[in-house]
Amino acid sequence: MQFEKDKPIYAQIVDRIIENILQHKWKPEERIPSVREMAVELEVNPNTVVRSYSYLQEQGVIYNQRGIGYFVSEDGEEQAKLIKRTEFIEKELPYFFKTLHLLGMDIGEVEQKYITYQKREEKGENQ
Protein backbone atom coordinates (compact mmCIF):
# COMPACT_ATOMS: atom_id res chain seq x y z
CA MET A 1 0.00 0.00 0.00
CA GLN A 2 1.29 3.44 -0.91
CA PHE A 3 0.76 5.85 1.95
CA GLU A 4 0.02 9.55 1.54
CA LYS A 5 2.44 11.90 3.29
CA ASP A 6 -0.18 14.35 4.56
CA LYS A 7 -2.39 11.86 6.41
CA PRO A 8 -1.41 9.66 9.38
CA ILE A 9 -0.75 6.04 8.44
CA TYR A 10 -3.17 4.70 11.05
CA ALA A 11 -5.94 6.83 9.49
CA GLN A 12 -5.14 5.47 6.04
CA ILE A 13 -5.36 1.94 7.42
CA VAL A 14 -8.74 2.84 8.94
CA ASP A 15 -9.86 4.07 5.49
CA ARG A 16 -8.72 0.83 3.88
CA ILE A 17 -10.59 -1.31 6.41
CA ILE A 18 -13.74 0.78 6.05
CA GLU A 19 -13.51 0.52 2.27
CA ASN A 20 -13.21 -3.28 2.50
CA ILE A 21 -16.32 -3.38 4.69
CA LEU A 22 -18.33 -1.00 2.47
CA GLN A 23 -17.35 -3.00 -0.63
CA HIS A 24 -18.52 -6.17 1.15
CA LYS A 25 -15.07 -7.77 1.01
CA TRP A 26 -15.45 -8.25 4.78
CA LYS A 27 -18.96 -9.05 5.95
CA PRO A 28 -20.58 -8.74 9.40
CA GLU A 29 -19.27 -11.27 11.92
CA GLU A 30 -16.40 -12.18 9.56
CA ARG A 31 -12.87 -12.32 10.95
CA ILE A 32 -10.47 -9.69 9.61
CA PRO A 33 -6.68 -10.04 9.42
CA SER A 34 -4.88 -10.12 12.75
CA VAL A 35 -2.74 -7.19 13.82
CA ARG A 36 0.38 -9.09 12.78
CA GLU A 37 -1.08 -10.19 9.44
CA MET A 38 -2.14 -6.64 8.60
CA ALA A 39 1.21 -5.19 9.72
CA VAL A 40 3.12 -7.64 7.51
CA GLU A 41 0.79 -7.09 4.55
CA LEU A 42 1.08 -3.29 4.77
CA GLU A 43 4.71 -3.26 5.92
CA VAL A 44 3.99 -1.11 8.95
CA ASN A 45 4.67 -1.32 12.67
CA PRO A 46 2.10 -3.52 14.47
CA ASN A 47 1.49 -0.64 16.92
CA THR A 48 0.15 1.41 14.00
CA VAL A 49 -2.33 -1.35 13.17
CA VAL A 50 -3.29 -1.62 16.86
CA ARG A 51 -4.09 2.12 16.82
CA SER A 52 -6.28 1.66 13.72
CA TYR A 53 -8.10 -1.34 15.19
CA SER A 54 -8.59 0.45 18.52
CA TYR A 55 -10.19 3.42 16.76
CA LEU A 56 -12.51 1.18 14.75
CA GLN A 57 -13.40 -0.79 17.86
CA GLU A 58 -14.28 2.43 19.72
CA GLN A 59 -16.51 3.40 16.79
CA GLY A 60 -18.30 0.04 16.81
CA VAL A 61 -17.07 -1.04 13.38
CA ILE A 62 -15.10 -4.05 14.61
CA TYR A 63 -14.82 -6.00 17.85
CA ASN A 64 -12.22 -8.25 19.42
CA GLN A 65 -12.80 -11.80 20.60
CA ARG A 66 -9.93 -12.35 22.96
CA GLY A 67 -7.63 -15.09 21.74
CA ILE A 68 -9.51 -15.45 18.45
CA GLY A 69 -9.14 -12.13 16.65
CA TYR A 70 -10.99 -9.13 15.31
CA PHE A 71 -14.34 -9.34 13.56
CA VAL A 72 -16.62 -6.95 11.68
CA SER A 73 -19.45 -5.93 14.00
CA GLU A 74 -22.99 -6.90 13.14
CA ASP A 75 -23.73 -3.25 12.35
CA GLY A 76 -20.15 -2.52 11.27
CA GLU A 77 -21.16 -1.48 7.77
CA GLU A 78 -23.60 1.12 9.12
CA GLN A 79 -20.99 2.43 11.54
CA ALA A 80 -18.42 2.58 8.72
CA LYS A 81 -20.88 4.53 6.55
CA LEU A 82 -21.48 6.95 9.39
CA ILE A 83 -17.74 7.58 9.79
CA LYS A 84 -17.22 8.13 6.05
CA ARG A 85 -20.37 10.25 5.70
CA THR A 86 -19.29 12.53 8.53
CA GLU A 87 -15.77 12.82 7.09
CA PHE A 88 -17.19 13.61 3.65
CA ILE A 89 -19.56 16.29 4.95
CA GLU A 90 -16.96 17.95 7.17
CA LYS A 91 -13.87 17.74 4.97
CA GLU A 92 -14.59 17.03 1.33
CA LEU A 93 -17.91 18.74 0.72
CA PRO A 94 -16.72 22.26 1.65
CA TYR A 95 -13.83 21.90 -0.82
CA PHE A 96 -16.26 20.59 -3.45
CA PHE A 97 -18.60 23.55 -2.95
CA LYS A 98 -15.71 26.01 -3.12
CA THR A 99 -14.55 24.44 -6.39
CA LEU A 100 -18.07 24.63 -7.86
CA HIS A 101 -18.23 28.29 -6.93
CA LEU A 102 -14.77 29.11 -8.34
CA LEU A 103 -15.60 27.37 -11.62
CA GLY A 104 -18.98 29.07 -11.92
CA MET A 105 -20.79 25.74 -11.96
CA ASP A 106 -24.17 25.01 -10.48
CA ILE A 107 -25.35 21.92 -8.68
CA GLY A 108 -27.56 20.99 -11.66
CA GLU A 109 -24.49 20.20 -13.77
CA VAL A 110 -23.15 17.94 -11.07
CA GLU A 111 -26.52 16.28 -10.60
CA GLN A 112 -26.60 15.22 -14.26
CA LYS A 113 -23.09 13.78 -14.01
CA TYR A 114 -24.09 11.91 -10.88
CA ILE A 115 -27.19 10.46 -12.54
CA THR A 116 -24.99 9.23 -15.41
CA TYR A 117 -22.55 7.74 -12.90
CA GLN A 118 -25.35 5.93 -11.06
CA LYS A 119 -26.65 4.41 -14.31
CA ARG A 120 -23.17 3.11 -15.15
CA GLU A 121 -22.81 1.66 -11.65
CA GLU A 122 -26.12 -0.16 -11.99
CA LYS A 123 -24.89 -1.70 -15.23
CA GLY A 124 -21.52 -2.54 -13.65
CA GLU A 125 -19.60 -0.33 -16.09
CA ASN A 126 -17.52 1.55 -13.46
CA GLN A 127 -15.64 -1.43 -12.13
Number of helices: 5
Q: What's the CATH H-level homologous superfamily of the largest domain?
A: Winged helix-like DNA-binding domain superfamily/Winged helix DNA-binding domain
Run of helices and strands = HHHEEHH
Number of domains: 2
**Classification by helices and strands:** mainly alpha
User: Overall 3D geometry?
Assistant: elongated
The counted number of beta strands is 2
Query: What composes the largest sheet?
Result: 2 strands, antiparallel
Notes on the protein architecture:
This protein has 2 domains: 9-76, Winged helix-like DNA-binding domain superfamily/Winged helix DNA-binding domain (Arc Repressor Mutant, subunit A), CATH 1.10.10.10; 87-123, no CATH class. The mean pLDDT is 94. With 127 residues, the protein is mainly alpha-helical. The chain has a two-stranded antiparallel ribbon. The radius of gyration is 18 Å and the shape is elongated. α1 packs across α4 (76-103) and α2 crosses α3. The two termini are 20 Å apart. It has helices at 9-22, 35-42, 46-58, 76-103, 107-123; strands spanning 62-65, 69-72. The protein contains 5 helices and 2 strands.
What's the arrangement of secondary structure elements?
Elements: H1 9-22, H2 35-42, H3 46-58, E1 62-65, E2 69-72, H4 76-103, H5 107-123
Antiparallel strand pairs: 1-2
Helix pairs in contact: 1-3, 1-4, 2-3
Quick summary:
The protein has helices at about 10-20, 35-40, 45-60, 75-105, 105-125; strands spanning about 60-65, 70. It has about 130 residues and is mainly alpha-helical.
Describe this protein with a few key phrases.
63% helix, 2 strands, Arc Repressor Mutant, subunit A, mainly alpha, 127 residues
